[in-house]
């Protein structure tokens, strides 16, 4: 699931997340920003077989980019790949079957990819919202494994490859839901208290914002951004948030509208004129905290998150055969 879903109780009146909000914002877009040819540039999109990921991949393919689709389900991914090639006429669409919730699989893929391809832009779109606490085969809580640790491992493993290219970018699809969450490093695996999948997802999305801000400071030669796609009508929203979908379905954004800012961040020259590490909505940087919200966290908590994720990451790398 990409970052469309958002706990909606706190945002009654925030209609900018809806289709109407997009239509209003888009009146101020400059169409020339997207009139670009990205032939020769290589893009990797996770969770690319449906929803915002597929819409993003398709728009990049239309502009001539080489697109690597990273998907968990081989059959659905092959259908998406064929659809993108047929609709865009771009043959440079490649498929990689990877489960982002499996850290060893992510490491294995990233190290192979590093040896075989170049990469200009990484788009972390894959995600999930599991509403009951589930553990992966590695004993990790599934939302955390996919949304946070998987994103962390894939990004850090590919940073050396991105660092070789001019105008390298990393875009992570987050969610406005993170606005209701303060970073909580005491319970990363959601072991304590009542499990609320929506809030766990929102916490993961807050973690992605923190990751992006830290990466931006540490890697000055790569442009990092994180974004909220608004509330879009995607398969993931329908399956993970059926009540929300029923209530909002007539005002949800299309997948392409949800993907618009991802594509803008990935291809436009304008995006990299803005500082690295910002949070975007409808092609504009927006605040990562609501006014008067107590969601700011101390720097030591953010640094602890990075350290814990690095430890997890290296432990799974070392557990690979031959390492």
Can you characterise this structure?
The chain is of the alpha/beta class and 323 residues long. Helices cover 43% and strands 12% of the residues. The protein has helices at residues 19-26, 51-62, 74-88, 103-116, 142-162, 197-218, 235-240, 242-248, 255-267, 299-318; strands at 42-46, 66-71, 93-97, 121-124, 168-173, 222-227, 278-281, 284-286. The chain has an eight-stranded mixed beta sheet, sandwiched between helices. Strand 7 and strand 8 form a beta hairpin. Helix 2 runs parallel beside helix 3 (74-88). The relative contact order is 0.17.
List key phrases describing it.
323 residues, alpha/beta, 8-stranded mixed beta sheet, 10 helices, disordered N terminus
Secondary-structure topology with pairs:
Blueprint: H1 19-26, E1 42-46, H2 51-62, E2 66-71, H3 74-88, E3 93-97, H4 103-116, E4 121-124, H5 142-162, E5 168-173, H6 197-218, E6 222-227, H7 235-240, H8 242-248, H9 255-267, E7 278-281, E8 284-286, H10 299-318
Parallel strand pairs: 1-2, 1-4, 2-3, 4-5, 5-6, 6-7
Antiparallel strand pairs: 7-8
Helix pairs in contact: 2-3, 2-9, 4-5, 5-6, 5-10
Helix/strand/pairing class, anyone?
alpha/beta
Order of helices and strands: HEHEHEHEHEHEHHHEEH
Shape: globular
* N→C terminal distance: 32 Å
Strand order of the largest sheet: 3-2-1-4-5-6-7-8
Integer-rounded radius of gyration: 18 Å
Low-confidence residue ranges: 2-13
Strand tally: 8
Strand content: 5-15%
Number of helices, where a helix is a run of at least 4 consecutive DSSP H or I residues? 10
Please tell me the overall pLDDT.
Answer: 92
- Can you summarize the main beta sheet? 8 strands, mixed
As a percent range, the share of helical residues equals 40-55%
